[in-house]
Amino acid sequence: MVYQKLKSKESSIAIIGLGYVGLPLALELARHFKVVGFDIKQDRVDKMRQHIDPSHEIESKNFQGADIYFTSNLEDLKQCTFFIVAVPTPVDEHKVPDLKPLLSASEIIGKVLKKGDYVVYESTVYPGCTEEDCAPILEKNSGLVFGKDFKLGYSPERINPGDKSKTIRDILKIVSGSDEEALENISLVYGEIIHAGIYKASSIKVAEAAKVIENTQRDLNISFMNELAIIFDRMGIDTREVIEAAGTKWNFLKYYPGLVGGHCIGVDPYYLVHKAMELGYDPQVILSGRRINDGMPAFVAKKLIQILISKKKNPGDCKVLVMGITFKENVADIRNSKVADLYKELKAYSVKVDVIDPHADTLETWEEYQIQLLDKPTDQYDAVIVAVAHDEYKNKTEDYYTQFMGKDPILIDLKAVLSPKPKNIHYWRL
Fold first, then answer.
1. I need a labelling partner for 291 at 20 to 30 A (CA). Which of 44, 270, 298, 351 fits?
2. Is the pLDDT of residue 271 over 90?
3. pLDDT per residue over 226-266, tens digit each?
4. Are strands 151-154 and 173-177 parallel, antiparallel or unpaired?
5. Which of 80, 134, 264, 318 is catalytic?
C-alpha cells in the first residue's frame, strides 16, 4: 500500500513548488514522512537549505527536525512515489488562465514517474484541468497510462498568508482521487498532518470546482460592498457605518469594501470564467464583480483628485504618500497588488507619489512594478493613503499621520485603520 510505504519511509513524498503553499506543506509532511522539496529556482533552494523562507512566512525554527531535502535537481525526484504540485496558477495580461507553471511541473514529474506512483495537485484550476490537461502531459512524458499505471488526486490549498492562528493542521482539508483506492491513500497521507479533519469529495472535478468557487464567492461579496461604497460616497454616507448598522441583524454577513488583489481572490474567478466560456456560457455575475473590483484603484485615485481640486490644489503640483504595497496586511507578497494599480492611476494624473512598506522587498517591488520603495517618508505630503492594514499602521493617532502632511492635508484610509475618525484633517475612507 502506498501510504504504508511512505509511513515506513521506504519511499518519499515530493513537493513541486515551494512558495507560500508548498513550503509549509512540505515542512509539515516532513515531520511524518521523508520529503523532497523541489523548486526550479536555485536561489530559493539555497535559502531554504539555510532554514530561510523566501516568502518570509515561516520562522527558521520550523525547519528544525524536518526530514526534508531541498533541491532543484530532477534526479532527486526519482526516489519519490507520491508527488504534490503546489505551483502558482496566475492569469496573463488578458485575464486568461496561465497554466504554464502547472503544465511545466507536470512535464517534470512525467520524466520521473513510475508505475504505482501518485500525483496530487493543490494549485487552483478550473474543473477538469487535472484529468484533461495535466494527465495527458504526465502520460506523454512517462510513457505510462493514467488509471492503469499511476493515479491522480486533487486537494485544494487553503493557506491564508499572514494568518498565524490557522496553520495547515487547523484547516479542514478537501481531498479527492481518481478512484476509491487513490482517495483512500491520499486521505491517509493528508490525515497524518491535518487535525481539523478530511473531507472526501466525490470526484476530482468536484474538488476543483469547490476550490474555485470559494474565492469567487468572496470576490463577489466584496464587489457588492465596493459598489455600495461607490453609491454611498455619492450620497455622503459612510459605508463602514452602514455595514456596522446592518451587521446588527443576525443573518447579515459583514464584508467590507477594498482593493482586491493577490493570487487567489483576484485571480481564481477568471479560471471559472474561462471554463464557462469554453462551454459556451457567458458568466455575467462573476464578470460583473470582477469589473467592479478591478476598477476600484481608478475610483480611489479619481476621488483623491476631486478632493485636491476642491481644495484649490493642482494635482500636478501635489505629492502623495502611499503606505503599503503588498496585496494584503502583514505579508511580503506583492503579486497582483492593486495598490500598484492605484500608484499608476495617480501617476496618470501627474501626481508625485512615494510608496513605503515595512514588509515588501525593495528589489522585488522594483522588478515587478518599477516602483521604488522608500525606507521612510521624505517630505510634507498633500495627501497620505493608508492602502494596506499592516499592524505597523494600526492603533496610531491622528498626529502620527499628520506629521507627514503639509498644509490642509488629506488622509485616505482604505482599510479604516484609524478609529475614531480624525476631526482636524480631511478624512475619507471606503
1. 351
2. yes
3. 999 999 999 999 999 999 999 999 999 999 999 998 878 88
4. antiparallel
5. 264
Contact yes or no for 185/177 (Cβ under 8 A): yes
What phi and psi values does residue 101 have, to the nearest 5 degrees?
A: -60, -40
- Give the pLDDT score at 202: 97
Instruction: Give the separation between CA 276 and CA 289, rounded to whole angstroms.
Output: 16
Is residue 264 among the annotated active site residues?
Answer: yes
CA angle 396, 398, 399 (to 5 degrees): 95
Please give the pLDDT value at position 261: 85
* 110-166: pLDDT as tens digits: 999 999 999 999 999 999 999 999 999 999 999 999 999 999 999 999 877 767 777
Q: Would you state the torsion angle of the CA atoms of residues 287, 291, 292, 294, taken in this order, to the nearest 10 degrees?
A: 130
Fold for the domain defined by 219-429: Rossmann fold (3.40.50)
Q: Specify the CATH number of the domain 2-202.
A: 3.40.50.720
- Which residues in the chain are classed under CATH 3.40.50.720? 2-202, 219-429
Q: Given the DSSP bridges, would you call strands 352-356 and 35-38 parallel, antiparallel or unpaired?
A: unpaired
Buried b (16+ CB within 10 A) or exposed e, 164-191: eeebbeebebbbbbbeeebbbbbbbbbe
